[in-house]
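Quick question, first post here. What does this chain look like in 3D?
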Amino acid sequence: MAMLSKTPATIVTGFLGAGKTTLIRSLLERAGGRRLALIINEFGDVGIDGEILRACGNPTCTEDDVIELANGCLCCTVADDFVPAIEKLLARPQPPEHIIIETSGLALPKPLVQAFHWPAIKSRVTVDGVVAVVDAAAAAEGRFAPDPAALAAQKAESGTVDHETPIEEVFEDQLLCADLIVVNKTDLVAAADLARVEDLIRGALNRDAKLLRAANGSVDPLVLLGVGGAVEDDLANRPSHHDDEEGHDHDDFTSFVVELPAQPDPAALTRLLEEVAGVHGVLRLKGFIDVPGKPMRLLVQGVGTRIQTHYDRLWKPDEPRRSRLVVIGETGLDREAVTRAVGGV
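> Answer (accepted):
Ran it through. Tokens below.
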């Protein structure tokens, strides 16, 4: 009897706010009836990305097709969370034709790929490809690499250069594992800055990986799905800063949830969040806000001081109209100070 083909899985990685969820939502809208299932992982206690994707309204991806693994990191919780989630999807009467896995913005993709060697799923699923999404605007601002002039001055003064920051290490590990790198938010940067960002990416790579430019996460599904990489068998060619570590943690980063009262003035809230993010060094903000008199919930998405808002769907009749923001930053981010600054309750 012929062996059944493996179910392909695509891992979508990328640093906080790169646009992973937007890319996946665009993919769902152009799936062409293909049965897709999503495994969504977030760093923090409240799952915002899963909620965004459940609201997409696409018949090829219902609420049952979205498995959310919040409050953790897939690369750290393989046995407890990830493998059972895969098994649950494969056991369905109509299993998915393709599985999309969105990692948290702080996850390292390589340990997750290694999980596909677990006996429970090894013969049933293959990693079709790893897609790394890069926020072109954040990269152009120097988020993932220090200013060359500052490095030169540091070396001239002390003769040495500090090691890479945790942000740089995570960013590079995500790139080094990728088959396809989507340089996203290209509409926010000038041509010269975009070229500089792509040079930065190529400088971090040790092998060829395809670069694609995108705005609003719009990429042809035929490019994203069907890479045929069998990545789990190619790990030796995908080095990581953490290869020699027995474990992996996120001690360099912190996350908390701020509860807010209803917000009657979204524009004023946006200005406040921009100020708070700048003062306190917030890396990522995301959540839903109740605006009195509006039947829809307000989605807030922030990367550094760039804050965007839009109404994403109607509040459900039995749904509490809560205003909550997930805040992510480096360790040392003052939870109480941020909560007070944004008027949290």
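The longest strand covers residues 125-135.
Residues 117 and 242 are 19 Å apart (CA to CA).
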